[in-house]
Amino acid sequence: MGKSIVQKILEKHIVEGKWEPGKEISIKIDQTLTQDATGTMAYLQFEAMGASKVKTELSVSYVDHNTVQIGFENADDHKYLQTVAAKYGIIYSRAGNGICHQVHLERFGKPGKTLLGSDSHTPTGGGIGMIAIGAGGLDVAVAMAGGPFYLTCPKVIKIKLNGKLNPWCSAKDVVLKMLKIFTTKGNVGCIFEYGGDGVKTLSVPERATITNMGAECGVTTSVFPSDETTFAFLKAQDRENDWIEIKADSEANYDEIIEINLDEIIPLTAYPHSPGNIKAVGELKELKVDQVCLGSCTNSSYKDLMTVAKILKNQKAHPNVSFVIAPGSKQVLENITRDDGLTDLISSGARIAESACGFCIGNSQSPKTDAVSLRTSNRNFFGRSGTKSALAYLVSPETAAAAVITGKMTDPRELETMGINYPNIEMPDKFYIDDSLFIFPDDANKVEIYRGPNIGDPPSSVPMLDIISGEVTIKVGDQITTDHIIPAGSKMKYRSNVPKYSEFLFEVVDPNFYKRAKKIKESGKSNIFVAGLSYGQGSSREHAALCPMFMSTKAVIAKSFERIHTANLINFGIIPLTFKKDKDYEQIDQGDNIEISNIIKNIESGDNLKVKNKTKNIEFEVEYNLSDRQREIILAGGTLAYIKNKSN
Ligand code: MIC
Ligand code: SF4
């Protein structure tokens, strides 16, 4: 029987287990990436493991999230990361070089390799034919120290792309269509593999837009074949030697096959507050727009920015629209400058921001109260823009450009009636390349690690308790994202200071959460969270587990969990429990006193646990889906403790 691309790449990397969808396997990781917001903790953990150098083929530490530098904290973290990189043999990408995923695609991604990144949008690398997976920082630290990465052997869903996109319709609309089909729930343990004759009509950055937002569907990753288009992209990056062909066998077996006709794709938008809320742009036609943001790791490539530049040539931004651009990388910015795109953008009225995450993570360019903000990014979660009352819509660069001109949501195809033709931007045969913002490690240099006052040791965990006795500190509904659990934006500067960052847990949902949690912790009890479906969507930030661990949380009970967050909870010794009967969710409330007993014996034998709701005087059963290894980690109190126990 033939093999899919996913099976071919994963089988080459399997360390433990075998190709058996649904079962745990571990794989060798060839490359890692970190970014500054997750990186400091990942490297502190890496240091704690005692390795002398990274053991991967290539590891890169990017600085792209916290580049605003209000106060000393961000700059302290950057310096720490730079010195750690130099000491352990890691390439350091300085602030200003661009967003990790865009830069990695340009300079390091290689077809057929595995990449593990401490950022949920690491699957961007799937656009170049790699298996690129997002994970918590601790998992990335383990991979850097030479350990394998554990995952569920995936189900593979083939997405057969037919035909070709029409003008004004783009890769972003394709992935928004994917979100309409698959939604943001229920895709855990799957990988999307793209194929069909439509693939060859999409450039590598367009493919990367599609794999990037597969993260919003909750899949492990998404991957495209590596073909002549991939070769042309690598050649334009002076990296043709990194190319190998990767394609599925013609009789490959898939768990499911979905077809998408590219010529039927129309401009789409995700309306507030989920990337899964999809409507046609035309349906929201009269919506007045206050802000348009172009950029983020989803849509900030050369082609994206040049397309907008040429649409806006000789046009001016509507007076009610604040128009911001964050180019994906220094390379993109330099190339659009050389090809005259930047001039068109500036003269249209764009505010050019740094090549970084910027507006996407809400640490700058927060829109005005009640604003309608059109963004080419991938997440429009509640509060993420930094303005709670703002309404963020995710759109393609073409739809963003149309709104810049008209001041309202506009189907970009209507621009033709205004005499604006679709600019068919070709990918350059050769990019202008300048790698001077990378610092490559040099063994001859002796380095002292710099630790400013913002760098604190990671908190240690305690082994699993036999009785968890505590209070339901918070009960939340479905699709709670890690942005709800612990906000990024202006609070992200505390990522290296867990006690301080913990003060902002669940801040956007309930400003009194921290006070309650602190009281429960100080009384010697456990904080217990209760949630609905798909708990922990979105970001890979391990602080959504690390800060709860610091606040003595030992269990979260939900209807279901998302993949990366589940792994993070386990890494920090918090057991993810699911209701055996969904109706039990209805019978538990915030403030209820809870007791879970006989935990150790039951986890050792893999049996379900019983939760006693002392306030309501009822008992119900909860389940957990943990491999033998994960049960040991939970009992040890987390991955670091587990590794230590093993090495003793
Ligand atoms: C995000 O887009 O939410 C982030 C910020 O890039 C996160 C990582 C983080 O919280 O540091 C992600 O996607 O994993
Ligand atoms: Fe940065 Fe936004 Fe991409 Fe996250 S989604 S990596 S914040 S650009």
Protein model, in words:
- The mean pLDDT is 97.
- The protein folds into three domains: 5-264, Aconitase, domain 3, CATH 3.30.499; 268-418, Aconitase, domain 3, CATH 3.30.499.10; 468-647, Aconitase, domain 4, CATH 3.20.19.10.
- Helix 10 (302-311) links the parallel strand 15 and strand 16 (322-326).
- The chain is of the alpha/beta class.
- The site of iron/sulfur cluster (SF4) has 11 residues, from loops.
* Number of helical elements: 21
The bound ligands are: alpha-methylisocitric acid, iron/sulfur cluster
Strand content: 15-25%
* Total domains: 3
Structure summary, number of beta strands? 27
What about the largest sheet?
7 strands, mixed, barrel
Distance between the termini: 45 Å
The CATH architecture of the largest domain would be 2-Layer Sandwich
At the first level of CATH, the class of the largest domain is Alpha Beta
Summed up, what is this model?
With 648 residues, this protein is an alpha/beta fold. Helix content is 29%, strand content 19%.
How is the topology of this model organized?
Elements (H helix, E strand, L loop, with lengths): L4 H9 E3 L7 E4 L3 E5 H14 L8 E5 L10 H16 L2 E3 L6 H8 L6 E4 L13 E4 L2 H8 L4 E4 L2 E8 L8 H12 L7 E6 L8 H9 L1 H4 L3 E3 L4 H9 L19 E6 L6 E3 L7 E3 L10 E5 L6 H10 L10 E5 L3 H9 L2 H8 L2 E2 L19 E4 L15 E4 L2 H10 L31 E2 L28 E8 L6 H4 L12 H5 L10 H10 L3 E6 L11 H8 L2 E6 L4 H9 L3 E5 L13 E4 L2 H7 L3 E5 L4 E6 L4 H9 L2 H9 L1
Parallel strand pairs: 3-4, 3-6, 4-5, 6-7, 9-10, 9-12, 10-11, 15-16, 15-18, 16-17, 18-19, 21-22, 22-23, 23-24
Antiparallel strand pairs: 1-2, 2-8, 5-20, 13-14, 21-25, 24-27, 25-26, 26-27
Helix pairs in contact: 2-3, 2-5, 6-7, 10-12, 10-13, 17-18, 20-21
Bound molecules: alpha-methylisocitric acid and iron/sulfur cluster.
